[in-house]
Amino acid sequence: MEHLPLPLHLSIHFILAVLVGWLLGRRFNKPALGIIAGLLGGFFIDLDHVLEYFLVFGPHFNLAYFLDGRQFLASSQVHSWFHAWEYAPILLLLAWLLRKKKAVMVFIIVLTVGGLVHLASDCLINQYPFRNYSLLYRWRVNFAADQILSPEQYQEFLNQKKYFDS
Ligand SMILES: [Zn+2]
């Protein structure tokens, strides 16, 4: 599905998350808080893959299965609940409503920007169209992998599925 090795892919997310967090945090005089929020929004956002794994397989964790993305192959669905553009306007509105509590506001802003940078870099790295990271779009197609992936990517998905099933 993706052609960049996973450690490199994750390193890109990690470095961008720290950079966004530090730069934005520094702008608000809260660099440490910025780095924490940047990492949560820009790196730990991927924990929804773990959540998806447990919802498909129950409480039996197998790291190799997880790294193969078998939660997607077994269900033929891609939920990725945290990966959605739609959260950004909601979170930014929340940040504005909480603007009197500066630390909370900064935390939410950096979390949001970190998440947006993560989604944009995922789209570029995985060659996904931007609509893939719309939760409304995924919900409309019932989170079906065959709708979300391009025909070539879906063929590769099926090949992997066949490989693991045999
Ligand atoms: Zn991601």
UniProtKB/TrEMBL annotation:
Q: What is this protein called?
A: Metal-dependent hydrolase
Q: Highest taxon of the source?
A: Bacteria
**Whose protein is this, by species?**
Candidatus Falkowbacteria bacterium CG10_big_fil_rev_8_21_14_0_10_37_18
Question: Which keywords fit this entry according to its UniProt record?
Answer: Membrane, Transmembrane, Transmembrane helix
Which parts pass through the membrane? 6-25, 32-58, 78-97, 104-121
Q: Tell me the organism's taxonomic lineage.
A: Bacteria, Candidatus Falkowiibacteriota
